[in-house]
């Protein structure tokens, strides 16, 4: 496991640590004050101590693994040996300490992991019990590939009603497995491949029901407690349905004795609906029935005596009351007090009252025994007893009770009827007289008691009242035994104790076999005698969890199911899915299952189309692009979260809740994220807001936690949002498949388009598929989601992400806003959040057409006089101008140059003056034109010129005339060259030392690479993209700038990689200084990087060449 987790691991201070007797065994009684970090294990249950837990026992609490290696620090490993049964707080336990010499007065314990499953695996690997089936695993023979006969003999002893409920692929899988169990002398393994929603659990349940009816002893295991309880519950429900089919829905009892579930009760988390099949519960109930003093024999005898001789019992009762009264009177006389009955009600009890009270007391115990027998004895025992006899006795008792409690019954008359002897026959066919009815009911009860007593005696039920003998009785008589794979190790222990009394299993069934480690499945495969195995799973979903990366890379997590698949073993594919709307199933089916899965008729019906929220964004399937998301690591640094996606998910849930309040139709929502930090953040934000609502459920879990689950609506938060398109373990196809296949009606995926599209994972295909199918939406297109995004940006001081012309804030403004890189850099440097908000509010007002009333806005300096404006925000100024761009027509736009204090404005103006001085008068005049909407708001003007608007004055540098020969001169080519010049002049460069260069080239994730100049995020993505690039953009959008920077950046990287760029003393890359790169001879530097820049414009080529040469000087 990863030792770095000890910082957040459950820990406690030791208050008591004393060695147990006998000494020198290493066992200590340990008590702790209370567990810290008990609830910090994100997405999991609160920590509880279990036997096998491994602790670090140290004199100080270690925060990092390195703390254990410091000089003077004492620590040892300790393993929990035993837990007190009555300790629910997990504060007292016995531990075995590896190094007892380091024990001091002040100690701490830190939980690492539970070693019990690993010990069981180790022991099972060293067994040699069921070698035949193990050989079958390693050397599968041709029988597995043989087809089977579907003739009528296969249907003998099979339940036709449940088989008919299966589709063709499910039925074939069941019949194949049942067919192979007929080979008594041949071991075989059968595989059932069940993709999501294909009825895998239903198929295995019908298989198990038929095995139970054929009395084929079967052990069923699964990798997790949740999985084994799920399949056991499904089988239990089928048994109830079968009982109702055979005996009708009005029968009182269900027989579950053929089904047995065992394991750790706390971890199984059994509900009242399944506790009847739990081993400990069954043993306790049977102990009550088999008790020689208060058990079933006592109950039968007591009822028989009451019905046959109630009058004598009443007389004995009266004598006892009289004796007690005399004793009380004598005691009172001795004290000199006046005698008075203590309980007049008891002393004056009539025969009727006695008979009623006595009957109810005995009948309640008898009914309890009948219920326990009918529920917990196996079906074969019930058949021997006769279920009808059980029901008949129960009804006779009810009938007798009804007569006994009639209001018209007189005590003396009832006493006379009890004095009469019991008549077992000769009753008239029609009898309405109370005495006749009473005798009939009394005779029926006695007859039923006698008959059932003889049947129970013939069954030879256990007479011993120890738990072990009752457990063996339960195992011997159960046809289906359920447990986790790890807990099945207990069967080996029971075989060692008493192999003769333990049953021989014939079949092993492994559910969720693809999630069970191959080595762990050996625990169940080593159970003696069984010859047939059925593995049900899907290797396209999540495999077993392996904490150690080293072990995972070595294949420790591989399942036996995956081994068989890799060997080409035939599988029975369940090829019809009944869970997902076709729009949801389309992508995972085509991507992970090669379009082999069909949509069931239920999901194709019009009733399966649900519209919970208005708008196409919230249809059955949507990818909702979160452009402004920002991933960040949690406090520990082991997981990630994205607060924008959190806000969007919560806003969607709020909208669903509002819609649900109006409809009140049941709705279940699942929020899934692959990152535990994201799960914890969403849970924390939701709190208990929706916990107590009837019909509205919200579950938040990790992808791993949701495997096997399904909800009406699933919202997936992918979290990742970065320039390098790194998606981490999100790239795992199995994890992606699980996440995408949990929804029934609606699946809404939250993610960053750019990050996922460039990730070279299945998510890139998913985004492309969503776009092709018209299921791709931007979150900020929805008004409510856009507001939620802006609110989070403000809350977490991420306002600079909104400074884009097409962002949520500005895309619908009157004025199109263009931000310079200089402004974006200056805005980020503003330390005060309130100042950022004020600047942002000013920009919003300016984009709406508002202008300040003061006229002192112009900046007086050179050519910038008529163009630049300054607007004050407290102690700083926003510098802006009106510019003109061409889209469908020429239009005015608002260009924001910078935000800076007054003393720095002149530097900016001088820097820009060389550009503005080249503007034509016509262009400047158009920039200065003003149009009002009403009296106060300015609106941008537009012009539809037929000819090209000339922005720059028509003068050419004659010194470069030779380089421009052959190029026809026109205004457009000059404008193109000038734009290249402008773009390159506005870049800002920094000095680079050797350390800075090394830092830039060794990013933490090994993904991103900073450049020593200011460009937009979009331009930086293109510059850093390593493959062939096609750039499409209108004039002035920065295409040439990007290409130029790609040339420069590739050359810089080339010299950095060859080790010839920069020294430890530092190298300046500012314009005007000569770089050491240009001075390195090709021969000394080794290989020379040669780059080719092609363009149709010679003047453009000249301009690029000039500026690249300037960058290198």
From TrEMBL:
Gene Ontology molecular function, alphabetical: ATP binding; helicase activity; hydrolase activity; RNA binding
InterPro entries the record matches: DNA2/NAM7-like_C, DNA2/NAM7_AAA_11, DUF6469, P-loop_NTPase, SF1_C_Upf1, TRANK1
GO cellular component term of the entry, any: chromosome
Residue stretches making up the DNA2/NAM7 helicase helicase domain: 166-322, 469-549
One Pfam family per UniProt: AAA_11
Occurrences of domain DUF6469 (ranges): 10-130
Domain DNA2/NAM7 helicase-like C-terminal: start-end pairs: 557-753
Entry keyword annotation includes Hydrolase: yes
Record PANTHER family: MAMMARY TURMOR VIRUS RECEPTOR HOMOLOG 1, 2 MTVR1, 2 (PTHR21529), TPR AND ANKYRIN REPEAT-CONTAINING PROTEIN 1 (PTHR21529:SF4)
Protein name (Swiss-Prot/TrEMBL): UvrD-like helicase ATP-binding domain-containing protein
